[in-house]
Amino acid sequence: MLTEVADAARRRDPALDALLREGGAEDVFVKNIENVQGDERDVILISVGYGPSEPDGPLTRMQFGPVNGEGGERRLNVLFSRARIRCEVFASFDPGQIDPSRTTREGPRVLKRFLDFAQSGIIEERRPTGLAPDSPFEEDVARVIRDLGYLADPQVGSDGFRIDLGVRHPDRPGQYLAAVECDGAAYHGALWARERDRLRQDILENLGWRFHRIWSTDWFHRREVEIARLRDTLSQARDAAQDGIRPRGANHAARPVPLDAPEPALELTQPSLSAPPYRRAELQAPPEGEPHDQPDVVLAELAATVIRAEGPVHADEVARRIAAAFGKTRTGSRIGEAVARATALALRRDTDLTRQGDFLMTRAQADSPPVRDRSAETGSLLKAACLPPQEIAAAARMIRTENGGMTPDQLTRAVARLLGFQRVGPDLSEAISAVLLGMAAA
Questions:
Q1: Each residue of 232-266: pLDDT tens digit?
Q2: CA distance 90 to 46
Q3: Which of the chain's ends, N or C, has fewer CB atoms near its CB within 10 Å?
Q4: Strands (DSSP E) along 126-201, which ranges?
Q5: DSSP structure class, residue 197
Q6: How confident is the model over 333-351, as a mean pLDDT?
Q7: Is 342 exposed, middle or buried (0-12, 13-18, 19+ CB in 10 A)?
Q8: Residue 263, CA atoms < 13 Å, CB-side half-sphere
Q9: Mean pLDDT over residues 389-416, rounded?
Q10: CA–CA gap between residue 121 and residue 109 (Å, rounded)
């Protein structure tokens, strides 16, 4: 269905068709959850094709196709991990409408957790522990909450951070509206007042909980006032939930962005890791004569200048740079042979210069190869055969230091991106992969 919609849109919009046409940096794909295995993109758009039978209606069935089947949670894990940078999720219902108690399969539970995370940015799973209330006081408060039309679960969360009573949304039983704390056994068992009050509450509020505290003395001596206060809190929480719960995060004090502000462009490059631009050697050639007619010692000086400026550099690039200094656009066999003789002479005369295979460099460049950005370059410098293995290895070490563990395919793309390549063709991929394999075997 989505494929047909995309094809129809492409036929109507030439710009969209050009964007989605095969042969770009990465082709756009449309797949269902059963066959998305093995593909990944920078941005993945996930559409939940299941929802209420009527617009804005309740989610009456906990049925989500393959997600409800055996291994549905594994299919979801594959789907959610296809995005390198960002997921955009489209659903026609609030994740709080998924009630885990109405299904025995793990898939719908995982789906609910992911949709909760996509909505709130919080990955915490809220579920009742099955434990009984700590005291008759908590049991009494829970009965009042239920009489007010809400669902109340005792002891929600994990040890050390359990909520006395978690109040669920009456229309979305999978979503908690508020945490009601009573000065029960958990409170009296805490060691420090600071832990009991500010610290513990701050942590739970930063996890998205709306707090309401009831003191036993107030509950017993001013019961009607406390019930009215509780009713108001739950009503306000329910109203706030209509637009989705917005938990307080690390940037809660930041200045809000206007609604009409343009969305910032998505940066697909590595923001914390960059390389300086590639710098070509600047040569001063003799004013007269052809390059192949020059004395070997003259060409040897020019070759040494190129190596010191651009090493590690392919021997053919040295010849191209010398030919360009004489105004030539091609090297030719005579220029190539003359530069080869001159390069050999330069290596004999200067022990600081060395050769490794087809690449020339100084000994300092061999010990610590520079990593350079070729995004502004054109021509032969962008050929995979002219990419120094020493520089590839140095780029890979930088990326591993910065990012830790990566798959070989991810590391190959990251190296190419750091060296200034916007797409990774077969030749470039093979050249980088060969160096990475050699590093792994060393």
A1: 988 888 887 765 444 444 344 444 445 444 544 43
A2: 6
A3: C
A4: 151-156, 163-168, 176-182
A5: I
A6: 95
A7: buried
A8: 3
A9: 87
A10: 17
The pLDDT of residue 251: 40
Two structure tokens written together for 290:
């052809």
Residue of 321, 393, 389 lying closest to 358 (CA atoms): 389
Mean pLDDT to the nearest integer, 229-233: 90
Q: Which residues contact 431 (CB under 8 A, 6 or more apart)?
A: 384, 385, 387, 389, 392
Picking from 69, 65, 179, 48, the residue whose alpha carbon sits closest to that of residue 119 is 48
In this structure, CATH architecture of domain 136-241:
3-Layer(aba) Sandwich (3.40)
E runs forming strands in 292-333: 313-314
Range name among 77-91, 164-178, 179-193, 267-281 with the lowest pLDDT average = 179-193
DSSP H helical segments within 358-425, as ranges?
A: 363-367, 389-403, 408-418
Rounded CA-CA distance 318/316 in Å is: 5
Q: What percent of the chain has pLDDT over 70?
A: 78
- For 351, the token pair is 């022990």
Count of C-beta atoms within a 10 Å radius of residue 210: 20
